[in-house]
Amino acid sequence: VQLQASGGGLVQAGGSLRLSCEVSGRTLSGYTVAWFRRAPGKEREFVASITWSDYSTHHADSVKSRFTISRDKSKNTVDLQMNGLKIEDTALYYCAAKLRGDIYWTYWGQGTQVTVSS
User: In the beta sheet, which residues pair with residue 9?
Assistant: First the structure.
């Protein structure tokens, strides 16, 4: 499985960005795909996840009501729509995938930088 993240950039506080994680290599039936982020000097943090087959989602409390994870079946991507961005959302954002029920995330994409300015 290959994961390719894109869509990061520089945006002012209150603005929006849409990240995309392109999935290739095999079908992800039975998998969960997630977005994580790592801010400078902080631990990696879970942001949101979606199950490939039934599209059920889960969002971290810190982003709930502002961020939305979705799957684009036609493009084979998992997207993260980020609205109402805050300075504290500045981080390197990664996408990852694992089989449902697994503890550890098996596949990781490279990060895409999101920088929110005041």
Answer: 114
Using an 8 Å Cβ cutoff, are 28 and 97 in contact?
yes
Residue range 18-69, pLDDT digits in tens:
999 999 988 888 899 999 999 999 999 999 999 998 899 999 999 999 999 9
Place of tokens 């729509």: 81
Asked if 114 and 18 touch (Cβ cutoff 8 Å), the reply is: no
Q: Token pair 């089989």 is at which residue?
A: 99
Which uninterrupted H or E stretch holds 117?
A: strand 112-117
| 9-12/112-117 β-pairing | parallel
Rg (the chain; Cα; Å): 13
